[in-house]
User: Which sequence fits this backbone?
């Protein structure tokens, strides 16, 4: 699965970049290291790697700026490194198109697990392209083959991770999915009770899909259980 997969690591801490590069290379990945934000934008858009690992604090352009600038031309996965444990950088990164984040100090086995999980999803994306099925809920159309979403006839721009999450909810529309269910489907891992990644991505999905974050009716939170996509909640007000 990972043989031949290419990764661009954007990190200016040489000790960390050397350690990560050596570790991932030993697992069969081809890793290119870049230590400057300006150079990273050009390299990512030109090389189109399978995955990008992007530190937030960089010389030149910071990681958040790099993420924002490459997203229109790069559809692969982006994992961000942050030294801050609060959610500000994490939420901003997800809003700008990052797919996940890791808090420093980086745990090598956790990084490897996330990298492998995203690349598995990339393989599943290719396999899904052979399936022309669409999931339709009134004004919401989730096209699994084309990986597009239309709401009220207009395309909704989603990141790769946001689409994966929406597709999981849509395929189980009407059923409650726990955070552990979602985490296993997304990455094969288990929800540890503390990770807010899923909650943050749900919040971003609601915003993009016109759901009220204060009183959501389309993607509902079921207290102490999880989330459910409500199949009958996707008509404009006043429609029958």
Assistant:
């Amino acid at each position: 699965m990972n043989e031949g997969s290419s990764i661009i690591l954007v990190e200016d801490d040489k000790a960390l970049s050397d350690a990560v590069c050596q570790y991932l290379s030993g697992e069969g990945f081809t890793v290119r290291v870049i230590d400057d934000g300006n150079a990273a934008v050009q390299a990512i858009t030109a090389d189109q790697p399978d995955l990008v690992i992007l530190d937030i604090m960089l010389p030149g352009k910071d990681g958040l700026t790099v993420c924002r600038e490459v997203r229109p031309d790069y559809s692969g996965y982006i994992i961000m490194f942050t030294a801050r444990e609060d959610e500000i950088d994490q939420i901003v990164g997800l809003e700008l198109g990052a797919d996940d984040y890791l808090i420093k100090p980086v745990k090598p086995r956790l990084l490897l697990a996330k990298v492998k999980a995203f690349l598995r999803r990339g393989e599943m994306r290719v396999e899904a392209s052979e399936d022309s099925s669409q999931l339709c809920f009134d004004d919401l159309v989730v096209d699994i083959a084309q990986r597009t979403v239309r709401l009220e006839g207009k395309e909704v721009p989603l990141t790769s991770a946001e689409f994966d999450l929406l597709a999981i909810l849509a395929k189980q529309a009407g059923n409650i999915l726990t955070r552990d269910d979602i985490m296993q489907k997304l990455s094969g891992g288990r929800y540890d009770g503390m990770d807010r990644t899923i909650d943050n991505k749900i919040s971003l999905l609601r915003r993009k899909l016109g759901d009220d974050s204060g009183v959501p009716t389309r993607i509902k939170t079921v207290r102490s259980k999880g989330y459910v996509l409500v199949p009958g909640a996707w008509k404009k007000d006043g429609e029958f």
